[in-house]
């Protein structure tokens, strides 16, 4: 067995380290932009997901399918409901089922979150040609799929 050694510069230039740094900076940017509305980026992502659904409502398990733990979903949704961004509603077809529905207040803030995303894309790709933007997007999608795949494998192995 050998010991892995990287200089500080080599460490900083590892793709995993750079993507983690970028992810953190984007999270900070979004949280700062959403703070005046009393929201976090994690909450705003749920609002975007809700507003994207056909009738503006989803079940809790649909949020869990986004890769979030049930306890995380419960906490985020409770905060969103307290803030008046969402409300729990009964199912129209199953009295036992509850759905989470976005409110008008939630839709307004969701629009702010989407504007932030568009602005961030412009910031991230400043100076990129159209071809570079397309290539960058394709590479990020491929990397995302690679990471998703390994996480699915690990999840199956843990079960």
Word description of this protein:
- The chain is mostly helical and 159 residues long.
- It has two domains: 15-124, Winged helix-like DNA-binding domain superfamily/Winged helix DNA-binding domain (Arc Repressor Mutant, subunit A); 126-159.
- Helices cover 66% and strands 8% of the residues.
- It has seven helices and three strands.
- The chain has helices at 8-12, 15-34, 41-52, 60-64, 70-82, 104-124, 130-158; strands at 57-58, 86-90, 98-102.
- Strands 1-3-2 form a three-stranded antiparallel β-sheet.
- Strand 2 and strand 3 (98-102) form a beta hairpin.
- Helix 2 (15-34) crosses helix 6 (104-124) and helix 3 (41-52) crosses helix 6.
- The longest helix has 29 residues, at 130-158.
- The protein is globular, with a radius of gyration of 19 Å.
- The two termini are 30 Å apart.
In short:
This protein has 159 residues and is mostly helical. It has 7 helices and 3 strands, in the order H-H-H-E-H-H-E-E-H-H.
User: What is the name of the CATH class of the largest domain?
Assistant: Mainly Alpha
How many structurally independent domains? Answer: 2
Please give the alpha-carbon distance between the first and last residues: 30 Å
Structural class: mainly alpha
Lateral arrangement of strands in the main beta sheet: 1-3-2
